[in-house]
User: What shape does this take?
Amino acid sequence: MCGIVAYTGPQDCAPILVEGLRRLEYRGYDSAGLAVHTGRGVEIVRAVGKLTNLDQALRKTPLAGTTGIGHTRWATHGRPSEANAHPHVAGAVAVVHNGIIENHVDLRRELQGKGVRFSSDTDTEIFAHLIHAEMQSGIKELDVAVRRALARVRGAYAIAVVHGEQPGTVVVAKQDSPLVLGLGEGEMFAASDIPALLAHTRDVILLADGDMAKITTAGAAITRIADGAPVSRDKKRIDWSPTQAEKGGYKHFMLKEIHEQPRAIEDTLRGRIDLDKADVVGAEIGLTEEIAKATGRVYFVACGTSAHAAMAGRYWVEQLARLPSTVEIGSEVRYRDPVFLPTDLVVAVSQSGETADTLAAVKAAKAQGARVLAVANVLDSAIPRAVDGALYTHAGPEIGVASTKCFTTQLAALLLLAVYLGRRRGTLNEAEARRILDAAWQAPAKMRDVLARADDIRTIARRHMRAKDMLFLGRGTGFPIALEGALKLKEISYIHAEGYAAGEMKHGPIALIDEEMPVVVICPKDAHYEKTFSNMQEAKAREGQIIAVATEGDDEVRRLCADRVDRGSIPPPSGRGSMLVAADVIEIPPVENEVVPLLSVIPLQLLSYHMADLKGTDVDQPRNLAKTVTVE
Ligand code: G6P
Assistant: This one.
């Protein structure tokens, strides 16, 4: 996730671009840069680190001009450095990009074969060379050259392009990454998100996937990328305040990030799944065939939410790759005398890549000769730097302290890891791998269906917001989801909550269940359905208030949960979808077993969110917690 901005008009553009980038810093902040038409062609200034560094660089090398583009980066391909910062340049062409190019390896090889020299490790630089090559071949119009270049590229992008010989013109295009045009009086803007535009205009056009636009002071000519046909898009007036705009109109970053999950999963899977071969691309996940075959055990280390993702990862590794697997908490490993083997693949899962306890465990594993793979969200952070390979989740920066989109992208990444290991080790056949990868690729659309029920979940939250304690139960991969649901609730609503393996309930927690106790049961129609259903009946028999996460159309769960509402003590919710929740049942669409956790955690995130919001706690910055914990 990166931020892009563009301007053309009568004003000096550098301050406008930098201010726009400041509003997009939430999208990434490891480096930034501008390209401006200065009258001497396009000139660029870039700097590593936060925007203040770009400000300082611009003070040393001012860029004066009225047309330009800017970028704030969250690294995906290539570590954060000045060379990898955008804009990227080829000849007179300069490009900024947000997204991921899937066929970047092939295109880079092809261009290198034609003598092109790359000056960065990014996938973005490919755009600059492709567009430059089109212009060199005699194409006169920048938009035509961009269209032809885009025909070669597969993946997600929002790009803005300027050319040294075409002052006063910016060409933008989008596919699967956001891009908004801002309409001023005799001036035009473009940006990844609305906050970058609000200081200048409230009239915007949200471009659709497959759109491109040539913007000049006269306005925007919008066409289809595929065939150049003109299209018209409606103008929208935005009346959000700047703070609302930063959160995409949501009340909190956490809620925005919950809703960003389908996109984050798509970005994490993109370019890593080869559906034709029913396989995962090893080079994209930091592993090789040799390592996969030599691995005798997978040893996960992680803390907090990441440890819950690792637990789901263990189930998948055992099931799909038939490898012994264990999950250890970072803070415990470091103070034990752990035994690592040279045939261990240690997988350190950490959204920040900086957690001190996980890093210490990684160092202990390395010291004993184990191979270590990092699963991290922050490129080039301490843990990926310390290990042999990295599998990056592409969630983009997460601002809410309680992790949501980082968690689900970790799940997606670990599922890919398990499929890759299974395929290399011959324990997962092609048909099974195809079934799972297909299901993973379809999961974001199903997640959107679950998110569409957010309002119903608020109604359930309202009914239970005065609870003092809550129990979360699940089996199989539903168990780590139960733990994660309980952790989310504790973190942001301060309600005491426990996650338990459903089968363990009878060994203690059942003593706590009475009519005061809400019991959240994750009971989708998966391999463990019948057993979990019995546990739900046991909780119900003790008068527990059941909140069930179940598969659409599961009437048995609905009947079991319904009678409390039917007794009339609590009014059923009204309005659209009330059928779904009348019995405190939150439905998820039917999906393959392996992707159920990606869906079943969403109702729990939303339940916690709404309970906390209704109680009025500080959802994004809960008391006593930190996003990145670099101390013991
Ligand atoms: C902190 C955060 C949690 C996170 C944990 C591990 O406690 O508040 O959200 O799960 O650290 O962080 P990591 O960056 O290693 O995933």
